[in-house]
Amino acid sequence: MHRKLMGFLVVLMATAAFAAPGQPQVTEGSLAILGKDGQAQALCPLKHTDVRAEISGFITRVTVTQQFWNPSKEKIEAVYVFPLPQNAAVDDMTLKVGARTVRGLIKRREEAQAIYQAARQAGHVAALLDQERPNIFTQSVANIMPGENVTVEISYVELLKYEAGSYEFVFPMVVGPRYIPGAPTGKQGGGWAPDTTRVPDASRITPPVTPPGTRAGHDVSIEVKLDAGVPIEEYRSTSHMIVSERTGSSSAVIRLKELAVIPNKDFILKYDVAGGKIEDALLTHKGKNGGFFTFILQPPDRIAESEVTPREIVFVIDTSGSQSGFPLEKSKKLAELALAHLHPQDTFNIITFAGNTQILFDEPVPATEKNLDRARVLLGNLTGGGGTEMMKAIRASLDPSDSQDHLRVALFFTDGYVGNDMEIIGEVQKHPNARVFSLGIGNSVNRFLLDKMAEAGRGEVEYVTLERDADPVVQRLFERVRTPVLTDISIDWGGLPVVMVQPERIPDLFSAKPVIVTGRYAGPAPQSGVIRLRGKRAGQPFVRQIKVNLPAAEPRHDVLATLWARNRIDSIMSKDWAGAQNGSMEKDLREQIIALGLQFRLMTQFTSFVAVEEMTVTEGGQPRTVQVPVEMPEGVSYQGVFGEKDELKSTRYAPASPGVGGGRYLGKSANGAVGYAQSQVAREMVAVDAESARPLSAEDRKRADMAAKLHPTLVAAVECLQSNVKKPCGPAPGSKLSIQVWLVDKSPATLAQLKALGFELVLDPKTAKLVIGRLPVEKLEALAKLAVVRYVAPQV
Q1: I need a surface site. Which of 50, 121, 665, 683 has the fewest CB within 10 A?
Q2: Rounded CA gap, 480 and 681, in Å?
Q3: pLDDT, tens digit, 9 for 90 and up, residues 65-109
């Protein structure tokens, strides 16, 4: 092997090949965010995402290939925030540069980031994959040279969801805009939100969103190779148009009908298998890491209760800005149908939440016609707007259950678009006398939060797309609330040598889905081994016996080790959700997760993949970082989240941080929360101090005029220079700042004015009224005074 190749790792997975693109064209599929006039408004370095899934029985292996391309004249670093399924076990990443491929290394997160930054500084092409949440990831690719393609391939495995004869495969395509509570503390990432006291990584989970009239340049293609193992009766996508080919009675190949789809909603594929019921199954693997098993245990049939047990049901409805319009109308429709399913002996209440929480009754009331009419009036008057202060709603709905001896059922209607997911899950865990059922409303909801809320609240979750019929959802929901299929579930292992079984506590079953248990075994067990599934069905004891065989050697099904490790990590995380949220997880728990991630080559909150192409060293200075924008999820109102669109916002898709000149979305509420504020940008401010009703002073007016054109960070830099403070408070005099300048026009005369100020041009997109370059910090104020300048922001 050539010495220059010694640093390469053996490639274990095939990498998709892409033809080198020609000169970019401003078309629907090009690398630009397009305005209504067809002009590019920002660069987009992600060109295409290709998804290949292979489904075998319960398990799917998915390979996601992201093609990054640099259309600019200087080298760049691309940063892309994207979703994967909340239960995915991400176990591989490869980097491809030209014909060379490097397999990623799994490292502690800090170590992986240090390796990446060192490679970035040295000019090596490198890729870093971080997990921000179990369903949110950040892909960073450094030193992409002009015109060059860099491909990153990510692989994961997942257990499919199964219920009553139907399987479901979901691939999420977009990270919805999260509401961020807490007081701002700074910014470590390139997102539109600052980090806060309650969401310390907010800037890493809020990628810039394309405004109305524009779209992200990248698109997605999906192919699913399906082998169900048993005859397939029907398959369908409830989200996209598909084309398919039957390759056998139990197999098919399914693709998106359009080869290049805008990634703005989840892809959902469902298929029904013959018989409508699976059999009990045991899968095993015995390899270098030991023995692993997965039991798939079929629950009993539902038995109707002879008596209807009264329930206390609290409807908790999200009315925040992201639910504005059709999503909220869907929630109202579901709630109205649910009210009609209440029995007279039931008690109920309605809580709505956005920036504040509204409670209809002082306490749950009987489901009389008079009380139901009041509830219907409330529903009819609901409108969407404001932030998603979900924690207030959690506490308002669940706190009363702590001091009562009867069961309270809380039904949450929401998209789950919050940044403090783990804090909320931890809060649900604190209320054992309540059951939480989640209804995800929308086409790209936060499934991690909604799944875990239901799990922590010992309830169920249901997802309702905006096109889905509401009636069967509500019917099924109330059937589950009233009559669980199986409760008080346990497994008698009969002396088998099993350890570290997940889940540690098996939840009650509310639907016809199997009990899935993973674990490890220390030694072989004979064919005569027997386990017993115990529980209560309609209050009566239930027992099922299953014969098992744990082999001494089984090289097949090696993916079971990965799935067990992923479930084990989930279990450990659940012991300290609050610590996971604020970055202070108990050290012992953190180390257990890191050990599992390193041993089983898995992405976690604390382990990352890093790959460095050591042969390529790019020339020149440091790469310019380009944040890849994402689509607004289908059905979500841009105005409901970010406020009414204005001319400035249409050209600056990443809103500024809070303060004068900041974007609408990031206003600061009275309680310090950063969220769906409705503040105007500085150039729209009236020249009156709102609190004192006195005209603004000349100094205040000057600052307001400057803030109308400069990002708040740049305003602070100017004021620091003018303050004559001896202690450094900003960029040193004479230093040059990297900035992006939005212009009224881009004529030679305009560019000459910029040059006269000392502006050094770095990038000049020909299709946008934007230039990127460097300027001495002392010249910022003079730049803001130029009539040809519309807005100036830092180039991160």
Answers
A1: 121
A2: 48
A3: 999 999 888 899 999 999 999 999 999 999 999 888 999 999 999
